[in-house]
Description:
CATH topology of the largest domain in chain A: Rossmann fold
Number of domains of chain A: 3
Oligomer: homodimer
Order of helices and strands of chain A: HHHEHEHEHEEHEHEHEHEEHEE
Structural class of chain A: alpha/beta
Distance between the termini of chain A: 81 Å
Largest interface: A-B, 51 and 51 residues
Mean pLDDT of chain A: 94
CATH class of the largest domain in chain A: Alpha Beta
Strand content of chain A: 5-15%
Low-confidence stretches of chain A: none
Radius of gyration of chain A: 24 Å
Largest sheet of chain A: 6 strands, parallel
Helix content of chain A: 40-55%
Amino acid sequence: MRTASRVLNDDARVADLTRQRVQDVIRDLSFTPDSMARSLRAGTDATIGIVVESVDDPFFSKLVAAVELAASESERPVLIASTRRDADRERAVVEQLVRRRVSGLLLAPTAGDHSWLQPILAHTPVVLVDRPAPGLAADLVGVDDRAATASAVDHLASYGHRRIAYVGDDPGIPTSRARLAGYREAMAARGLDVSGDLIRADCPDPASAAAATATLLAEQAPTAIVSGATRCSLGVVPLLHSEKRTDVAVVGFGDFTMADTLEPGITVIDHPADAIGTEAVHRLTARLAQRDLPALTIHVPVHLIRRGSGELPV
Amino acid sequence: MRTASRVLNDDARVADLTRQRVQDVIRDLSFTPDSMARSLRAGTDATIGIVVESVDDPFFSKLVAAVELAASESERPVLIASTRRDADRERAVVEQLVRRRVSGLLLAPTAGDHSWLQPILAHTPVVLVDRPAPGLAADLVGVDDRAATASAVDHLASYGHRRIAYVGDDPGIPTSRARLAGYREAMAARGLDVSGDLIRADCPDPASAAAATATLLAEQAPTAIVSGATRCSLGVVPLLHSEKRTDVAVVGFGDFTMADTLEPGITVIDHPADAIGTEAVHRLTARLAQRDLPALTIHVPVHLIRRGSGELPV
DNA sequence: CTGAAAGCGCTAACAA
DNA sequence: TTGTTAGCGCTTTCAG
Lengths: 314, 314
């Protein structure tokens, strides 16, 4: 009898006695309703999918944690998948999630064209996190990367620095490009050298960032360095320490563990993963409730945290 | 016609012409097979669920990353959920995952009795990660916590330390208890003070660990400290630096960012999240293939990484 | 080689 | 208040 379904769904139209009987049976058989079958019938599933480079990355792990928290508030399970910066893999995992009929998708896109995703938007809402996807008109929740690195340059310049170098992540990623552009603009606005000798904008990991810093130090004698990503800071800062060059000023994009304990403390522009994740889930649920919203770009504010390394004089 | 299904599943018994026609239609309608309906019919779903304290924790984020990687090798999607150290929440999310018919579950249990999970094991394999669950006979993949902290004590003692303090995480968690026990044993084995004055084993976060360290420093004059968890190290080490007491030797359980760049570098016992995650997935898939395996405890080896803070003389 | 029918576990709609 | 029927999208079985 399908009265069982009514009991499970707290339908009012069921006699107390019957309800009791059904619940007894449920207990005796330790019966558990199959939520997948329910989703199939309902035609929709609450799950949301999140696709990032890797979960093992300070920024993305905080992002995923915030997403999981926000999602759990509306009882939505979270499926994770990682791209490892591989466009083919990204496409594969996104399509897998779509086949699973996730109700929506949060995506930190890899580099490259994403127009293949456009048709999917028609039935599966997508909110981009941290960076835009070329060729895709979708919501985006992130920060104003350009203004952020520009403010880092301004900050250093206000302490008298003129030879400010830049170490950045893979320029294929729009976010990296925006950050580099912000650096360039701020340098140019102050009439500072922006010839390119001071720029090493292709360091996708700490090791290459460390190597780039070593070269910069040897050849360009910068008095300050802007690091465009946490994974770069994790190379720049250790190298400065191992070379005993902690006299070089540093402002990093993205906070990290022990930044405050190092000597000097590392001045950073905080990259608010929590706020980005929370906002992204909210935007996604809003779009789930009303499908025809216009594609929006939401910028979460960032803050510069003074800790010493960014306030070193020339 | 149900020939479509045959095309999708690469069934050999279908004429090339028909296959072509079906594929054309699939393309034209941008049809995507519903993997949930498939799972419903098949009675089984490949997804595995992972339940941890929080994704935003260096150890667990590495663990989740490793799990996702290992799972993707067998094409298994990963559902994450966090307990936030709340037993009620843990039960709720586990039951949610079971209702979704995940094929198996990876669980880092909260403190407290877990016998409620026992009946679930009959149909949903569970592999515990990092720590046992009281009242539950299930596989466990972790490290020998006891031996690890004991070796930390031995290491410090070999440099002449006798007043070795201990700062640890919440003692409700079996792992924390095992680590404390290892410390105690090693201290006792050397005839060192283990009265309890040197022990602060209830620091569930960096702030409380920092406060505990301050008290220890003021009242007990330890020459060395064993930190029983990364989250404790993140309080102990900054406090030592802010108090200019970097003469105190430190060995921490669990590696962390910049541990090598601090002065002195922090000697740690690495907590191999990658290996634990990979092993756990392997054990789970093994159990999925053959349900009647005995409950096993698998210990992944740990290594002490010398960086300076653990090799300071008295 | 292809089609038709049945059923996975669930619920909406209708009937009793 | 309760039971029956149908069908979500898929695959397995059995006929054609």
